[in-house]
């Protein structure tokens, strides 16, 4: 690999810095692959900016913004430095757009929808727009909203196409690639016109071969396709047309499968089947099961053990078929199946959620059996499930429940590491 300058990166919706950690793990003594030059983290409707405090403590050399990103773009855009790569885990929201009343060809996205902040940065940067994007979201993005399956993703793809990008995506379950948590997320990469990667994709005789061959995402997280892609489908029209009419939205099925690429409005997509060999992994493979992340009993405070409330936990985790009543007095029948209790230690964990902290009995919190009895997971164990360093989210002013919330919102660092290494390798060769 030829030596190049590091890829200048900005991190949006940064949380406690999962993207930053993953990209840092791509650096070595011989080569700095990535340099995060600016970040933004702002949580609305809260007095304390806890995640921002942790981010600034862990990455003091990164210029950091703790303001509403929409306000930064509108009032202080010069603060956002030019960069080669934009990364971020943006929320899954309603991306619908409409034509403005004052201008027939003008389009207006919904206020407060953070996808449009990414779009606006790219648009306003113009010729200095980033060469690459690396984004993360929940996998339901591919099939939202419920009444127009795939509309939101179609709007996103088309808007990036209009800005000059080829876009690829794949749904990655961390556990299927040797990591300790079953966490399915869609990762999206985009390559701007004029970059070597963009040119390479355009030269392919079979564009879908990028998805299973030399594609950046495939080299990091290889997959086979359940079915070959014989004919692409086309996304046509302006964003308002797509918002209203894209291929007669099917309320039962999205046109976007778990692996895909969009080139010049043409979409190639199929279901991906993991094809993982840990001996060839680009990411650091460690902590493969829930047992592997557990701390020694001597390190776990007493507050994490279940005390005299086992019946509540068994009820929450158990099967139910009962009559319930809403606050308005409406009576309905409720049912749900049972969950494994306590959690299996010889497999990757279930997906950790934001409500993982606190002692209250819950259906979704993890409970493990140890020599000292049943207990909840500690903040350190939750960090390990996302492949964060031990104690990354710890500050004297941060509660254990808040640390659990951070990890429920975070991504698995090993995935960013793998994608980052693959991107840098392709970037350096072209």
Quick gist of this model?
This protein is an alpha+beta fold and 430 residues long.
Structural write-up:
By secondary structure, the chain is α+β, with helices and mostly antiparallel strands. It folds into 2 domains: 7-281 and 412-429, Rossmann fold; 290-386, no CATH class. The chain is built from 13 helices and 18 strands. It has helices at 18-24, 50-58, 69-75, 115-125, 151-162, 196-202, 216-220, 239-245, 290-293, 310-317, 379-385, 400-409, 413-429; strands at 7-12, 34-40, 63-65, 85-89, 97-99, 107-109, 132-138, 165-173, 184-192, 223-225, 233-234, 259-263, 266-270, 272-274, 320-325, 331-336, 367-370, 373-376. It has a 10-stranded mixed β-sheet with strand order 3-2-1-4-7-9-8-12-13-11, with helices on both faces. Strands 5-6 form a two-stranded antiparallel ribbon. Strands 10-14 form a two-stranded antiparallel sheet. A hairpin with a 7-residue loop joins β5 (97-99) and β6 (107-109). α1 (18-24) crosses α13 (413-429) and α5 packs antiparallel against α8 (239-245). It is globular, with a radius of gyration of 22 Å. The chain starts with 6 loop residues before the first strand and ends with a helix.
């Amino acid at each position: 690999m030829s030596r190049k300058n590091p890829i200048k990166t900005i991190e949006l919706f940064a949380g406690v810095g999962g993207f930053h950690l993953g990209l840092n793990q791509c650096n070595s003594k011989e080569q700095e692959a990535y340099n995060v030059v600016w970040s933004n983290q702002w949580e609305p409707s809260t007095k304390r900016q806890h995640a921002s405090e942790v981010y600034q403590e862990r990455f003091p050399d990164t210029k950091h913004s703790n303001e509403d990103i929409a306000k930064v773009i509108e009032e202080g855009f010069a603060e956002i430095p030019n960069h080669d790569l934009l990364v971020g885990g943006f929320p899954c929201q309603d991306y619908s757009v409409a034509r403005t009343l004052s201008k027939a060809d003008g389009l207006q996205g919904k206020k407060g929808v953070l996808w449009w902040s990414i779009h606006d940065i790219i648009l306003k940067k113009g010729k200095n727009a980033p060469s690459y994007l690396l984004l993360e979201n929940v996998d339901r993005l591919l099939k939202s909203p419920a009444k127009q399956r795939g509309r939101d993703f179609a709007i996103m793809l088309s808007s990036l196409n209009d800005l000059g990008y080829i876009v690829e995506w794949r749904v990655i379950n961390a556990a299927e690639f040797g990591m300790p948590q079953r966490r399915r997320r869609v990762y999206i990469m985009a390559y701007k016109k004029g970059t070597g990667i963009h040119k390479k994709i355009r030269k392919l005789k079979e564009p879908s071969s990028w998805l299973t061959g030399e594609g950046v995402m495939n080299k990091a997280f290889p997959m086979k396709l359940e079915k070959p892609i014989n004919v692409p489908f086309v996304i046509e029209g302006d964003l308002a047309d797509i918002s209203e009419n894209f291929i007669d939205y099917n309320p039962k099925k999205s046109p976007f499968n778990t692996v895909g690429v969009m080139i010049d409005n043409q979409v190639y997509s199929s279901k991906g089947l993991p094809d993982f060999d840990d001996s060839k992994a680009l990411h650091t493979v460690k902590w493969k099961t829930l047992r592997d992340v557990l701390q020694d009993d001597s390190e776990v405070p007493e507050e994490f053990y279940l005390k005299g409330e086992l019946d509540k936990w068994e009820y929450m985790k158990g099967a139910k078929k009962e009559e319930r009543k809403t606050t308005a007095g409406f009576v309905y029948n409720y049912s749900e199946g049972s969950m494994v209790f306590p959690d299996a230690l010889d497999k990757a964990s279930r997906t950790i959620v934001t409500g993982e902290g606190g002692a209250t009995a819950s259906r979704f919190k993890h409970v493990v059996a140890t020599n000292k009895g049943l207990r909840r997971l500690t903040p350190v164990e939750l960090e390990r499930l996302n492949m964060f360093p031990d104690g990354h989210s710890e500050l004297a002013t941060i509660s254990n429940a808040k640390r659990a919330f951070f990890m429920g919102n975070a991504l698995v660092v090993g995935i960013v590491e793998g994608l980052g290494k693959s991107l840098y390798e392709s970037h350096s060769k072209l």
